[in-house]
Write a structure and sequence with these properties.
The protein has about 190 residues and is an alpha+beta fold. It is about 70% helix and about 10% strand. The chain has 4 helices and 4 strands. The chain has a 4-stranded mixed β-sheet with strand order 1-2-4-3, covered by helices on one side.
Length: about 190
């Protein structure tokens, strides 16, 4: 969808955001299916490929409600705590006019010239020079600028490791009930 004016950019952004949310659910289902497929192979290593695919699909159907609830909960948490999560990951700190007068005045003049409200200003100490603005509603606009330093690499690596561990734990929580249900059904027959 081509965007020509401000309102078409907003509409285009909303449409792409909805596609991304739908894609999140699809990605979760694909990951659950892949995990169920691996679990089936490890549980019963001498079956046919057709059996593995059917069993993994059955596991996916069994665990789909759990995966849907977890993905929806993930979206709700991200919606209500997005700014706190971003600040925790990036180390963003609020800035006042007294702390950074030049940057604050520059942002304020830009907002006045465009006729938009002044966002909350944040600073991130980082290895890279960058700036970004995020919002869910007009009242929650945050503009963050990064100031170059060399001491954040260890923190970013640590947060990346925590993110990977959390993702693996979420996958385990979604795949294990499906595998248990499948094994229970297989031995009960």
């Amino acid at each position: 969808m081509a965007a020509y004016g401000l309102y078409t950019h907003i509409a285009s952004n909303k449409f792409r955001s909805m596609l991304l949310l739908a894609g999140l659910f699809l990605l979760i289902y694909v990951l659950v299916y892949a995990g169920a497929l691996l679990a089936e192979v490890f549980i019963n290593s001498n079956a046919s490929v057709d059996y593995y695919l059917r069993a993994a699909f059955r596991d996916l159907i069994t665990s789909a409600p759990y995966a849907t609830v977890i993905a929806a909960l993930w979206i709700v948490i991200a919606y209500f705590f997005h700014q706190k999560i971003i600040d925790a990951v990036t180390g963003g700190e609020d800035v006042t006019r007294q702390q950074e007068p030049r940057l604050y005045n520059l942002l304020e003049n830009l907002c006045i010239s465009r006729g938009i409200p002044m966002p909350k200003l944040k600073i991130v100490e980082s290895d890279a020079l960058n700036a970004y603005t995020g919002m869910l509603a007009l009242e929650s606009v945050r503009s963050t600028f990064q100031r170059v330093t060399a001491s954040r690499t260890a923190r970013v690596v640590g947060l990346l490791i925590i993110f990977i561990i959390a993702t693996v734990l979420i996958l385990v929580v979604m795949v294990v009930p499906a595998v248990r249900a499948t094994t229970t059904m297989r031995f009960a027959v």
